[in-house]
Specification:
Low-confidence stretches: none
Distance between the termini: 23 Å
Strand order of the largest sheet: 1-2-6-7-8-5
Length: 142
Amino acid sequence: MAAAKMSVAELEDFLRVEFPQAFGDGEIRIESADGETCVLRQRYHERMLRPGGTVSGPTLMALADCAMYVVLLSAIGPVGLAVTTNLTINFLRKGQAGEDVVAAARILKLGKRLAVGEVMLLSGSSPDPVAHVTATYSIPNQ
């Protein structure tokens, strides 16, 4: 296992400052990050729902993107200008109203300029994912 370049506390501090629109209000929490994987939890709120009472696609995509960013920063350190270059999501089943959404991310390949990872999104206590995401991040020259 690769050693994490940033601890959970360091990640949270960095993201509250650099990415307050997603991490400023504490709605998304980092449960773990080790340089290869991370787990984020988004607390349930009615804003997450779309008509029909299911968790919306934009909510799931945003959480997956945040999870990929967190796992990447845990691997490379505080590189604020690492950006998403591709994100593909497969919606698998309905996310349940009233339940937190959990994102489990892992890096599949970490290069000097690009990182590729995947994120499984879970709703509530079900082990069955509500969505599967693959994402690529561009890493700027340092």
